Amino acid sequence: MASAPTGRVDTIVLIHGLWMTSRSWERWADRYAARGFRVLTPAWPGMEVEVEALRADPTPIAQQRIADIVDHYTGIIRELPRPPIVMGHSFGGLITQILLDRGLGAAGVGVHPAPVKGVLKLPLSTLRSAFSILRNPANRHRAVWFSADDFHYAFGNTMSRADSDAAWERYAVPGAGHVFFEGAFANLDPDSAAQVDTRRDARAPLLLIAGGADHVLPPSVISSNAALYQKSTAVTAYHQFPGRSHFVGGEPGWEQQADYALDWAVEMANTVSPTVVSTAPGR
């Protein structure tokens, strides 16, 4: 297990996903900070307030766009003195891939990530998980409520209903309809914000992690995403944790995924990352 940062990589940027806020990283952030890393958990632009405030007024969520989110994190990373490890969950994993495509980061980890443009098939469980958004095309311009029932199917399916409901109460917020539609229909948009150059050789190492019981983004989606990078000489790895749901922030056993992601990222960042052996992008 990585016990402390090296002299070259000492910062981790954690990016949350759809239906969540930065609070979803609280356990991972504490675990990484205890090992001596500087851990940043910046929210999507406009979502810096607490879960309860976003539930009361989800207007900032409705305004989200993938390009704006990427630009937001680009600015944060470029202000750092050294390239960080970048980890993103769900749609945060898509953002992570786009950031690496821009030449940012020392290493990237997509934790049950939403796919980049080019993954052609979404399984029924993915569509059912997002039914609250997809059922009405007008939701593209809204922040769409995510009920406790929605959460139990999409995130808490390996947990008891009581534990799932407690997690929903602490973490869940309405979903950004526009962001979801951008991702779901990326293959129909020639100018999709979810597009990356999967053949790019000069990018930081990338790990994509899947959960065997994930209803939102099953292993078939994430392995297909990883396969898109096969013509790149940059390091791309895929790892599946059997029996794990989409709720990586608090499902029992979350520590295994957190430690695996950190160990892999630290090793790759300090051995093969082009941003570490050269200079930080944008500096």
Automatic annotation (TrEMBL):
Alphabetized GO MF terms: hydrolase activity
Family matches, as InterPro entries: AB_hydrolase_1, AB_hydrolase_fold, Carboxylesterase_BioH
Coiled coil segments of this chain: none
Domain AB hydrolase-1: 12-250
Keywords: Hydrolase
Any matching Pfam family: Abhydrolase_6
Record protein name field: Lysophospholipase, alpha-beta hydrolase superfamily
Organism of origin: Micromonospora rhizosphaerae
Source lineage: Bacteria, Bacillati, Actinomycetota, Actinomycetes, Micromonosporales
